[in-house]
Amino acid sequence: MSSEPRPKLAEPKPFSGVLSQDKHRLQLTICIGIDFAGEVEFQFDPIALSDDTKFILLSWYEKGDDFRYFSFAGVAEDGARFETDHLHLTSLDKTSDATGTRITPEGRCRKSELRYKLTKPAESPVLRMQLKGFENLGSLHCECRLGRLAMSGEHSVDDKNAVTGFVIVQSVSIPDDVAAWRAETEKLLEHIRRIMSLAASSLLRAPIFEFYWGDDVEVVALSQTRQETSAFRIVHFLAQQEIFEAAIRSFFDPPVVVKNLFFAIEWFGMDAEYSEVRLVAAMTALENLINANAHDEEEFFQPRKRYDKTRRILKAVIRACLEKWPASGDSLLNELDGKLADLNRRPLLAKLRLIAKRWGVPLGDINETSLRAAKNARDRIVHRGQYYDDAKESDADLWTHVTVVREVAARFFLTAIGYKGRYISYIGGHHDADFPPLPSGS
Q: Which domain holds residue 176?
């Protein structure tokens, strides 16, 4: 592992322009660069405090619920242009001597745009998304109607928060509508990012987008939260070609139309130090996916209109029973009436089996008892805040419950994108397996 610091994505250079906030405007020069994690860096020279510059100081000390950004637009000597409306100060140093008071701000920005000229024009549009913490050996390649795709990363990543890879699309010809091509390609790249996050059981961050067309490059930088990693990948970083292709196919022709797929993937990718949190996150991912995609006949025992009649009958029976109990009243009846609505809802695991059958999720080898025990373990953690102190000696180890729920969730995800290939299963210990699983005796 190299101890050398990672190079910046863009070395700082001076941009001369206008810093503004509300009606205030200040002409100045700021050195701007992009660090190894894709964060835009600002280096201010000391600014003499005056009536024209005191708005910076006042903004730093201002208290209130309204968070106000600065704007900056500047030009470098080589013609590069930088713009942001989302600059915020992270610190402000103030020094005074006989010559006056000077302030030296430091800042970051939530979003910015950098434009510069290419030395050689791009023959067709190209869009590239840079990724943090992406691991891969060699490059992944595929073609689709939007163009040729490639995805590359590092085979050994020492800092998961660093930009280590990218996914790129180049149109094979000039589209009739370049703006429309770019908009759809951005959606494709975002879809790929999320599916490759699933493969890594992480949340791959994308701080930089680059658009090449004609003589121009447009770089959009987005500030991101710190990239973390997971020890529980479901696809090995040395074998990602199949899931890369599945990501692209499922964008254009999803084998299953899934609601909340990406939201559930984010829950699945949340890693933690404690297995209690891992179990809750994995079960939440699965529960979100099930509840968002259940049809009415999978969600309810009876059609809702029919159950309204059943509910009225049940309520009348309860009212008759409560009339014999002097301490009861309308408030208790109303509380019990609210519970009646839940009687028509199928339990989570029943819905899970119904949706798995409809989607074709292979769960035949998943023991029903172990899945139910895993759900009960999650409920125990959520409602009591702990597992082991309340667990019986006969209960399974918490990690066993985690592996069962993650396995079921992974199979739902892989089915949803039409994946076929090798994956990593943790049931019974870390091992490679085929997806879909081979029939017994094969």
A: 115-252
